[in-house]
Structure formats: C-alpha cells, structure tokens
Amino acid sequence: MTATVAKTDTSDSPNKKSKAPPQFKRKYNRGEAIAGFLFITPWLLGFLIFTLGAMIYSLVISFSNYQLSLDIATPVGFANYERLFDDPKVMIALGNTLFFAVMAVPLEIIFALFLATLLNRVGRGAGIFRTLFYLPKMTPSVATASVFLLLLNGNYGAINRGLAAIGIQGPQWLVDPSWVKPSIVIMTLWGVSGTMVIFLAALKNVPRDLYEVASLDGAGPVRQFFNITLPMISGAIFFNVLVLTIAALQVFDQAFLLFWRDQTSAAPEASLFYAVYLFQQAFRAFNFGFASAMAWLLFLIIAIITFIQFRYGNRFVYYEGDDK
Amino acid sequence: MTSIGTSSGNVSVQSQALSVAETGGDPTKPPRSIKSVVGKVVLWVLLILFSLAFLYPFAWLLSASLKPRGEVFDNSLIPKTFTPGNYAEVWEQLPLLNWMGNSVLIALLAAGFVTLSSSLVAFGFAYFKFPGRNKIFALVLATMMLPGAVTLIPTYLIWNNIGLVGTNVPLWGANLFGSAFYIFLQRQFFLGLPRELFEAARVDGASYWGLFWRIAAPLSVPSFVIVFLFEFQASWNNLQAPLIYLNFGSPDNYTVPLGIAYAMTKFSPTNGGQGDYQLVMVAALLVTLPMLILFAFGQRYFIEGIATQGRKG
Fold it and tell me: Which pTM was predicted?
C-alpha cells in the first residue's frame, strides 16, 4: 500500500504542473483523474481478484470436477447442477433454510421494532437499556451457542426448568426435529439489537409535529403508530427485511455449533441448513464442483427473493421529498 | 425467571399498555395524568423485564463458569460450590493463551488494514473527479449484496494456490483491498468535510496525498474508529473463516472461537470427554469479555455505525 502511496505523491504532482490538461477531456483534470484512480486502486484490485475473478473461477469450477490435491479441474458439463436435484439433502437443506427465514425474519422485525418503540418512549434512561439490549450483539456466536446449548438442554436446561416451574413441559429443543429451528430463532432474537438500533434511529427522525397534529385531530397512539410511524420508518423496515433475509438464508454459525461441529454424532436432519451443507460438501468432502453449484443456486435464490422484495416492497416505502 | 416465561407475560401487558394509551389520547379531556403514569410504569416494567431476559444468559454464563463439573446444569444462579479454580484450570486444559494471541493479532491486522485501505478508496471516491466514478461506486455498493457463499470456495482456492491455507494470512489479506460497507461509510464522512478546506490546501501547494493524509484523515478520526471497531469485532467473533483456513493445522494456531468449538467437541462425553462444560463456559466468558469492554469504551461508535448502515437503505 505504501508503494501506491509513494507513486501518487511523486507522479501526479509534477504531471499537473508541467502538462496542460485539456487533451484528456474538458470535464476532467488529468492529474486529478489519475490520482483518483490511484486512490481507488486497492478496491479495483480486490474487486478483480476476490469478487469478479472469484465469481468466474467459481462458475468454471461448478462445471467441473475439481481435485484439490492435483489442482486439476475436469469439465463435467452440467453434472454438478443435475446433482443438485438428485441429492435429496440439497432440497432438505433448502427447505429448512427457507422455513427458518420465513419464521425468523418477521419475528425479528416485530421484536426489534417493539423494543425500539419502548426505548423511543422512555426518554431519559434509554441509554442504559440500549446498552443492555445491545450486549448480545457484541457476544461472539461461539459463546452464544455454548450457553444456549446448555440453556436449551431438554432435560436439565434452564429454559425447560423454568417452564416446568410454571407447569409447562418444555420440548426437547435440540433433539426434537420440530423444535430445532425455533431454538435457533430464539438465539437469533436474543441478538436482534442491531436491527433495533436501526429502527431507533429511524424513529428519532420522525418529525414530532406530525404526532402533535395527529393527536389534535383525535388520533390515538395506535392509529398514530399505524398511520404515521410505520409509513415514516418504512425505509428502515424495508432495509432491515432485506438484510435480515439475506442473513437468514446464509445462517451458519449457530446451526454448525449446535449440531454439526462434531462429525461423529448424529444431528437431526431438520438442523441441516443450506450454508452448513455447502460447507460440508466443500471443506469436509472436498466436492468443490458440487459445492460451487450449490453456491450458485443459493445466489440465484437470494437474487430472486431480493428482486421480488425490491419490486413489491418498494411501493410501500415512503421516500421523503420523493428524492429517489 | 426464564425468557419464555417473561415474554408470554409481556404480551398481555403490552396490549394493556396500548389500550390504556389509546383512551388517554382523547384531546377533549386534558387531565390524563393517572393514565400517563400507568403508561410510564408499564413501560419501565417492560424494559426491566426485557433487560433481565437479555442479561440472563450472561449471568448464567458467569455462574456456570464458577461451578464444578457436576453442577453446571443445576440451574441455580449462585454456584453451590464456588469453584474459581476453573479459571486456573482452563489454561492447562486448553491452549487458551495461544488462541487469544492469535485472535488479537488477526483482529488487529484485519481492522488496521481495512481501515487504511477503505479510507484511501473512500477518499478517491469522495474528492476526485474521474471518468466512470459514479458507475464504479455503484459497483462498490452492489458488491455488498453479493452473498458470501458465492465467493467462499474460489477465495479458498485462491489462497490455496498461493500456498497460504493454514496460515492466518487469508483471515486478513483481503482487507488490504478495502471493503464495500466501510468505503461507503467513510465516503459519507469525507463528503461532509467542507470542500474549501481542500481548495485552500491545494492553493498552498499540498499534494493529493497531503490532502488525504494531512487534512481529511485527521478530521475523520471518528469514522476511522467506527470502521476499526466494527472490523475488530467482526474478526474477533468470526468462526467460519478460521474453521476453513486453520482447522487442519495444530490447535495451537486456532483463534478463540475456533478453539471453543474444538473444546466443545473435545469435552463432550460422546467423544470420550468428561463433560467439562464449566471450562467451556470459562473460555466463552473470556472470549466475550474483551468485546464487552470494547463496547463499554466505544459504544457511541458502534451505535453510530449501525445507524449509518440503516441510512443507506
């Protein structure tokens, strides 16, 4: 990086003084344009290698049988993509992941918005609660998982002991296939504070006089919430839905730590998330070709879902001054 | 006491709060002080209950880390047999000191490099006019939408071809090239600086590098801190990358998260371990503590960074 820097310093300043700029294009100062490109060179290089190059590489590998030890990629046509539909685990993992996303994203949005509304109302003292609510977000996933692994234990875990105390027989959270995904949803909700902070910032931006006018017109807090607050923060809701969906479709850490870190023990198939299966295929079985095909399928699905969200979600978003 | 119990209780309280507030909104009856007091009380009760639910796992973690092996599951927040010896034993059972050293080094390199490179690139986009600038910047933003899963495998193969898998270079190497979100964040910050400042410096003979290093950078320390803290946290907490790049080497080279995942398996009775979960709890506490301290000192930077994230939507 220092090399780039040194170049910027020496090459363009004399350039600027000695040569007249206009041969480039009237709009741009030549020295300035060159310096600009030098400043963004790190990103351009990274993009060419780790984004564009990587994507092309990935595409090539997805059409081949790649052997890591020999670094040889034998073309196999669409075989890896056909296997996506032959391997029942791909569809199971995809189903699990979509099911999780459909359950987790709305709950995260509602819970985060509810917490943000509370914090927005409390005025003085909000800072302390915001700090407390934010702590789970700072916690490494491995610590969260190791605590919840014990909290959610069906026989001795604190959550089921607590439920038993009020007369409810808690489920075998981490064993019963139908409770596996709710378990991960609970862990996800515990760390919802990032979303909450975005909502809180949006709530603070809603002009106060809107509420004053509305309450003069006799609108109660519930109507104010639905007719003022929700439309005014629709941009933040849209953003959060988008980001949380993409994150939910790639969920890895919790599922891996709770169920799949240990290759010898049997984990319920209900916990096989797409990113986990992709990881297993790539870095445990070393089927890089097949795993790359899986990655492209996930990319396609995320692209489609994001497109639909933009197409149909955007119309509910209120843009101030219609600047978009 | 559990989160489940409290949250089911909260639902009814919440609807009550709403209905109380709704009737209180009638403007024809100005004296509504009793109702607003009730509302305040309900609000504070809810906030305290949620705080307890959020803090409970931390309290549980601390408590479990002080219990002997047989009592980890005993569900009491105060250890019956107070066992601070766990904190000494964990260093003998696990190479925790190595893991901490690895994690600190990697997080420092990752955060330092990404802060520098992203701010350089951001300044390029913010100050200079060059052909295609807006299109290239749109491309920067577009890469944020790219799911990590797509580039995971080729990135691994790239590092593998250079022979760096098994070292910690892949865990910070790509940070030399800037990162889209941080470029966006720092560009916003640079755009907020008055342009006349740079014009004046140019007149005084400052080079373009001087504009960045002597003027923009010193004025942008807060955005540097945001980026550094965010990346430090992301790197410190990262599990997947160490899992991919370090897993097959010696456990001494692990980062703390990877080490804890390894310890969870090692101590598990199904693998012939003795179920020393109290030691896993100590390690989990020790990996969390630096982040909580970081947050204590850098809270406003974290909150501001997250809020910026929302503003681009």
Answer: 0.85
